[in-house]
Amino acid sequence: MRTLTKEIQDKITPSMALRLLQDGNSRFVSNLKYNRNLIQQMNETMDGQHPFAVILSCIDSRTSAELIFDQGLGDVFSIRIAGNILNEDILGSMEFSCKVAGAKIVVVLGHTKCGAIQGACNHVEMGNLTALLKKVHPAIAQTPRTPQNSQGVYSYSDEVAINNVHHVMDEIPLKSPILDNMIQNGEIAVVGGIYDVETGVVKFFEHPHLEHFELEQPVAIVRKSSFEHELISTL
Predict the structure, then answer these.
(1) Which CATH number covers residue 171?
(2) Whole-number Å distance between alpha carbons of 27 and 34
(3) Is residue 234 part of a domain?
(4) How far is 154 from 225, CA to CA, in rounded Å?
(5) What is the domain range of residue 97?
(6) In this structure, is residue 1 part of a structural domain?
(7) Full-prediction pTM beyond 0.85?
(8) Pairing of strands 53-57, 105-111
(9) In this predicted model, what pLDDT tens digit does every residue of 131-155 receive, in sequence order?
(10) 235 located within any domain
(11) Does 67 reside within a domain?
């Protein structure tokens, strides 16, 4: 697998970027991965980087974006914070990733059985964590309790996790004119998904942001997808 260059990055569209992540997750679920030479990638990226995606995910030790999407050095920007919440520092990091460094897709990635979301649902207060968990409250307000989501330990918080992803997706263009302009111009897409810690599968969501964006379904991967083969063979 070649290290991403500016030439490769320029050829990747937001739709292609999503497909690259879907294919990578399919490899992960199948216990397959590209045979990367990480030392070579380290050497080839020491003077610059050209990632195709920026991924906001939780700090949970089970949700490393590079692993679950089978990506190498220099492929993705990874922003991690408990509950994959949004603040000014994270928005600034996204703006750098897209406007300055050329990433083509912003992914907001929640996950099942999230301790931070569960803590917010249980109104946990502890030091600086209190203010962080308050950022999940809008998603809680959007999630009524029902007999169905009150069955298991994480049934309710898993629904909140989904709504939290949608809330963060909504907030990104509202709070960042830079990213909003790039979305409107078709330079980037903002997508959301949930990682299932039991299966390893990432389910991407339909969302109003994606009105003019084709959300493809994951495909079965054996070695290398024809999509990635065609992309790299054109360079």
Answers:
(1) 3.40.1050.10
(2) 8
(3) no
(4) 35
(5) 6-229
(6) no
(7) yes
(8) parallel
(9) 999 999 999 999 998 888 878 889 9
(10) no
(11) yes
